[in-house]
Amino acid sequence: MNSKYNRLFKASTREGNFWPAFTDILATILLVILLILITLMFTKQQQIEGKEKEVQEKEEIIDSLVGYERGMIEQLSKAFQQEGVDVEIDQESGSIKFDSDLLFDYDEAILKSQFKQQLQEIIPVYTSVLLNEENQDKVDSILIEGHTDSDGSYMYNLELSQARALSIVSYILSDDFGDFPHKDVLREKISAIGKSESHPILVDGKEDMDQSRRVELKFRLAMNEQMQGVLDDLNVEQE
């Protein structure tokens, strides 16, 4: 009898030891899973914070670029006003647009005399702001862009728009134009670009042929690698 009870007691003791051991293993597994989840949540939070910081940095860079550009546009507007030069500046882009029909005869790239006089008034003031000692390092380039309407072939319009832009640059840098402050700096930064019919002016969704025939005077800001990277990212997102 005693041996029978001893066997039952030993069996129940072994069974009782099994369940606490299994519970410990299960608790350990749950603890590991919990730690993994906490680690994943922490990592995700860091990624979110890193993304938010990256977005904030990009916004600050964009704001600085916009601030530089707006500041220069404001300086240009004040300078033209003070000098009594009647010129309209696009307050968003800083571009100054000229009607090609007033600059050139039809299908020609020879400057009209009245436009030469207008350039004589505009360019010295324009360069005195953008190319002074304070701003010239911030300006990467000054562009003369020729634009046409869509009448005719693209290649013909490209050659015409390029010839017109080059005609303006050649005159500004010529001896006939005369000297003005920062002309030497302008020589290094100015470019003539023909755009053909690639950027038409649309009114109610249709091309305005008269407005599309134009020449634009504009500037581009100098950018460091970080600024250029942000702009490249924006261009990729827009595509």
From TrEMBL:
Pfam family, one: OmpA
Gene3D superfamilies linked: OmpA-like domain
Keywords in alphabetical order: Membrane, Transmembrane, Transmembrane helix
Protein's UniProt keywords contain Repeat: no
Transmembrane segments: 21-42
The OmpA-like domain, residue ranges: 91-223
GO cellular component, one term: membrane
Methyltransferase in keyword set: no
Protein name: Outer membrane protein OmpA
Origin organism lineage: Bacteria, Bacillati, Bacillota, Bacilli, Bacillales
